[in-house]
Design goal:
The complex is a heterodimer of chains A (141) and B (391). Chain A is α+β, with helices and mostly antiparallel strands and 141 residues long. Chain A has six helices and three strands, in the order H-E-E-E-H-H-H-H-H. Chain A has one domain: Sufe protein. Chain: A (Alpha-Beta Complex). Chain A has helices at 4-11, 59-72, 77-81, 85-91, 100-120, 126-129; strands at 24-30, 35-44, 47-56. Chain A has a three-stranded antiparallel β-sheet. In chain A, a hairpin with a 2-residue loop joins strand 2 and strand 3. Chain B is an alpha/beta fold. Helix content of chain B is 39%, strand content 14%. In chain B, the strands form four sheets. Chain B has a seven-stranded mixed β-sheet, with helices on both faces. Chain B has a three-stranded antiparallel β-sheet with strand order 9-10-12. In chain B, strands 1-11 form a two-stranded parallel ribbon. In chain B, helix 6 (159-168) links the parallel strand 5 (141-145) and strand 6 (172-176). Chain B is globular, with a radius of gyration of 22 Å. The chains are: A alpha+beta (141), B alpha/beta (391). Chains A and B meet through helix 1, strand 2, strand 3 and helix 2 of A and helix 9 and helix 10 of B.
Chain lengths: 141, 391
Amino acid sequence: MYSDKVMDHFKNPRNIGELEDYNAVGTVGNPKCGDIMKIYMKIEDNIIKDISFKTFGCGAAVATSSMATEMVKGKTIEEALALTNKAVAEALDGLPPAKLHCSVLAEEAIKTAIADYYKKQGIDPKPIIGCNADCAHCCEH
Amino acid sequence: MKIIYADHAATTRVKPEVLEKMRPYLTEEYGNPSSLYGFSYNSKRAVEQARENIAGLIGADVKEVYFTGCGTESDNWAIKGAAWANGKKGKHMITSKTEHHAVLHTCQYLEKQGFDVTYLDVDKDGFINPDELIKAIRPDTILITIMFANNEIGTIMPISEIGRIARERSILFHTDAVQAAGHVPIDVNAMNIDMLSISGHKLGAPKGVGVLYIRKGVKIESLMHGGGHERGKRAGTENVPHIVGLGEAARLAKAYMDENIKKVTAMRDRLIDGILKIPYTRLTGPTENRLPGLASFVIEAVEGEAMLLKLFEYGICASSGSACSSGSLDPSHVLLAIGYPHHIAHGSLRLSIGEENTDEEIDRIIEAVPEVVKKLRDMSPVWENGKPAWA
């Protein structure tokens, strides 16, 4: 049911754990839905220097978190904000239809962490990110 | 890697003895039991021998055993057939909230046709309360359908009591015994069961064959119309090899039942003791009146599907009632019905043991599950300082 790539990222998740010196963090999902992603970032000079994640959820939730962190690592904030759920799913050679919401969650987790970075700088993230990055609503996907 | 199969509530391996009994009917004995010439007699005799074996397993008369295509067909037939045949007497039926979807979705279908269904609550261990059943009975109640044993949490319902209540009020009683048949003793007469569903592949027969026991005198419409097979009640050429397989599986189940219950229960209890050592882990379902092979849990702060994928890295086949493992947004209706909130029910794990399992395999599972849980908790944002975020 899962592609080899999904299984690889599930079995060997990249960037797993909590960064020691993160300066941005974002959590999406809620325990009721059974998927929670927490993304830690170390952002310097507009670049995501380091990134990690912790995920409570199914195989697809872990794999999409892992893949999304790989895809934005070393990228500028603008490049990271341009990451779409579709790109995450494609990079994993596709997801079963019932699991596409996991890739949406991964996209939102990245955006939420960046929003947190802006908020900590005293900048309103809403005009930049397009929402107030209060994404604890996974059940709606 | 060696597979450790701990998902016998999902399906079972065809027993070697069963396959041997089936083999001639897949090869040289291909006669149609309905044909007149001598060549088909062996097929006919084999089907009738299988019928006798099934009757023997549940204490029925051979004329009360009807072969079907699967357990789901048996449930559909019993419920729709009884509803349609008795709809003039009344439109009310009673079931429970923890039935298999083969029963629940059939009841929901009949609701759309104008029937009225009461879904009884269950307690924290999954038992219905017989007093609530009595209260739910109305003058127009025509059918009570309550499962013999639950497929997710192993609860064995108070079947004799339900049967007595139904019989005293002349209400039909159907039970989905798909998880129970061949695994625990069943006596349709002592238990006052009017209809009972069996699925072959849960007891060592192949997939694609089932049984509906229908007590003599019970009025029931047919689902399948056509030839006069199964005494005119279920048309369709008999699946002779599979029926033979189910008959042999039933014979073996009866012959070895006491021995198997003892062996499987001991393995199950050891498994339960081992898994419950994991912190923030609970047994789902009862400790008494529980299916011999079924060990089920909720393990907090880990998600069921992730657990299954990781367990399979150890070769262990298990199952879960989590939302993600079912492809829906909600965890299993059974776990919700016994009172678990969503965030706990997501951590559901079911291990179902059969007599083919070994003590070594149980040891291996008891070693593997805590390792898997630790790995997943280590990466879980809801596991903090050795406990779930909500604890």
